[in-house]
Amino acid sequence: MSHSLRVIFAGTPEFAAAALAAIHEAGFPVPLVLTQPDRPAGRGMKLQASPVKRYAQEQGIEVAQPPSLRRNGKFPAEATAAIDELRATPHDVMVVAAYGLLLPQEVLDIPTRGCINIHASLLPRWRGAAPIHRAIEAGDAQTGITLMQMDAGLDTGAMISEARMPIHDTDTTATLHDRLAEGGAKLIVDALIELERNGKLDSTPQPADGATYAEKIGKQEAALDWRRPAAELARQVRAFDPFPGGAATLDGTVLKIWSACAVEAPRNAAPGTIVDVSPEGIVVACGEGALRIAQLQKPGGKRLAVRDFLAGSTLAAGQHFDLAQPE
Questions:
Q1: Pair (146, 272) in one structural domain
Q2: Structural domain contains residue 2
Q3: Going by DSSP bridges, is the β-strand pair 32-34/7-11 parallel, antiparallel, or unpaired?
Q4: Is residue 121 annotated as involved in ligand binding?
Q5: In what residue span(s) does the Formyl transferase N-terminal domain sit (predicted)?
Q6: 3-state class of 66 per DSSP?
Q7: What is the dihedral of CA 59, 105, 190, 132, to 10 degrees?
Q8: Are residues 182 and 268 in the same domain?
Q9: 3 state SS of 103
């Protein structure tokens, strides 16, 4: 089915690529895609195109990659050129998903039908950069997708629609991300069909109560502080898969912890003490309860299940992980 509503799309990671693919496959014309400049990645630190750019290029869609859209920022010439290109590209609406650049009011004012943002939380909870990670880390029972009309604030615009989904106690950021990406893709296509049919989308202002901010994840957050309750550490490990992982130091070696669950503490032991080692898991005493580690990784090695890890390492009850220094 083909549609007449023309959509400029702005986004960068896999989450956004899923939405772009759904919009394109639903038959909406996409005259231009904005995505972040290629970034160095991987061991060789070669420049890599974003998932959104790769999809757009495969489909023959025009791509622009300005480093900024703010005329008064560090890249005034590039921002001006990108704004000129937006003005010169006939379109009706702009859809933004995890783009990663600030859109000034001047840009928000260009599309006649405004800018719609696909945000991976139930707003106003978890505005900001890392809503999926923070929802798991905080132990939220559910999350979802909110579509909103963008304004100049950080995720403060009026809400168009939402889709809710449960957070399972086995969810990692990776698994929840994939379900949310699918949900966001469906929600935006439904909204664009309605916008084309009715010429407008109803929206309601976000409630003033319950706003929280999902700060960007920093590498330094990986360190597990064994003085905290095991249940919190287990959530941290799930929230930080695939990035930055949980990290714990044993005899000067930093091990990555990729899978763990909270268990009853078998006996009173100081936080950070290994109380049990078996092929089923390495049990470490915490401030409250204990953490059973099921998957870990040595520097330069692969993620290994405990059984395989123990084949190449000697770990024994009584050893101590370093207590993470609070930042």
A1: no
A2: no
A3: parallel
A4: yes
A5: 7-192
A6: coil
A7: 90
A8: no
A9: coil
7 touches 29 (CB < 8 A): yes
Structure tokens that stand for 127 in this block: 């505005």
Per DSSP, helices labelled H in the chain are: 14-25, 51-58, 76-88, 105-108, 131-137, 173-198, 230-239, 306-311
Q: What is the Rg, in whole angstroms, of the alpha carbon atoms belonging to the chain?
A: 23
How far, in Å, CA of 223 to CA of 227, rounded?
Answer: 12
Looking at every residue in the chain, the average pLDDT score rounds to 94
Asked if 97 and 15 touch (Cβ cutoff 8 Å), the reply is yes
68 is in an annotated binding site: no
- Asked whether residue 40 falls in the same domain as residue 176, the answer is yes
Q: Are residues 59 and 173 in the same domain?
A: yes
The verdict on residue 271 lying in a domain is yes
Type of residue at 158: A
Rounded CA-CA distance 294/307 in Å is 9
Q: Report the phi/psi class of residue 117: left, alpha or beta, with left for phi > 0 and alpha for psi in -120 to 50.
A: beta
Question: Distance (Å, rounded) from C-alpha 161 to C-alpha 168?
Answer: 23
In the three-class reduction of DSSP (H, G, I as helix; E, B as strand; rest coil), residue 222 is classed as: helix
Q: Is 123 annotated as a binding residue?
A: yes
Indicate the DSSP class of residue 223.
B
Q: State pLDDT tens for residues 225-276.
A: 999 999 999 999 999 999 999 999 999 999 999 999 999 987 789 999 999 9
**Is 124 annotated for ligand binding?**
yes
Residue in 40, 41, 82, 46 with CA at minimum distance from that of residue 62: 82
For residue 256, give its domain range: 219-311
